[in-house]
Design goal:
The protein is an alpha+beta fold. The protein starts with 9 loop residues before the first helix and ends in a 14-residue tail after the last helix. The structure holds iron/sulfur cluster (2 copies).
Amino acid sequence: MKRIDERDTMFARMSYQKDSEQYNDYYKRNPDKKEIDDGLRDMPHICGEGTATFHPLHSPFADAGFRFLGDMKKYVEGDVNKNKVEVEAEEISKKIKKFSKYLGAKLVGVAHMKDYHFYSYRGRNPETYGEKIDKFHKYGIVFAVEMDKDMINRAPQCEEVIAVTKGYMDAAIIGMWLSYYIRELGYEARNHMDGNYLVVAPLVAQDAGLGEIGRNGILITKEYGQRIRLGVVTTDMPLIPDKREDFGIKEFCRVCNKCPKSCPGKAIPHGDMELIDGVERWKIEQEQCYAVWRRLGTDCGVCLSTCPFSQGVSMQLIDKMKNSKESMGEILKEYKEKYGIRPYIREPLDILK
Ligand code: SF4
Ligand code: SF4
């Protein structure tokens, strides 16, 4: 699989200030993206005034969380204790999982890191723009935190962006504590958190068996569907990797096709997967998705709430899914009876009344 260049991601592109070194370099190499990106840059900011969901008291609550994340992201690396504690891979893997769950993670796995888990070049921060990523830790501890269903089912209103911010915050704090702990034991460790990743978290999570990537490009877990945020800590401490589990999402997405119908940006493909850089997958139109975010003022999240697995599906039906079309039919029938097109709640939650 070809490695992803972080400079091409929407968040990186939107961070290039007009006429800065990064801006000039990027659009010299990608002139076709300049016009659309300049148009997006001129739109109001997420959580900003002028967006459809802006509220003078609620929007800054999410924004403040992102500012705190921005201040915290410089602590992802640190000194390693010179007095190394000898660990046994099986024992420490179990302990790391228990500690992560104690700290609030709902799902935890370990991936044997491959080069395609890492971005090829860094893009999101001006200080590190264009840096080649060529130092790979051997293992990735990947964990998922849950986002509140009542908040996500109000997508694309303000509740959604608050829940997403909290998800990033929870994941960042768990990752910080784990990486400080591993360095205390005498091994290298790096936290990968919002705004400071070297890895593509959903690819790591998929290989560690946490879930499968669906039609909209987001990881689907059996337990919480897409109502999760991911965190990753990479390390050279010996660990036992988990295995990838294919539970039939690709087949399900082919039949389901719900998220392309509910997507306000028409960014999710209706058809079949394409062969992209040697891998068969669906490709979302990231510019169209991002334009919706800047119009609405939240990161939308309609596809997250639309996905049947985000609402909870019985494990029995999921486990039969791969070999049974009836099981898929039953999941979709139950969903339709309960939620119709999608489980949208207009009434604000108590915290925003
Ligand atoms: S976040 Fe919204 S606009 Fe983006 S793909 Fe999902 S539904 Fe579409
Ligand atoms: S809504 Fe349906 S098609 Fe979209 S990701 Fe979820 S299962 Fe796949």
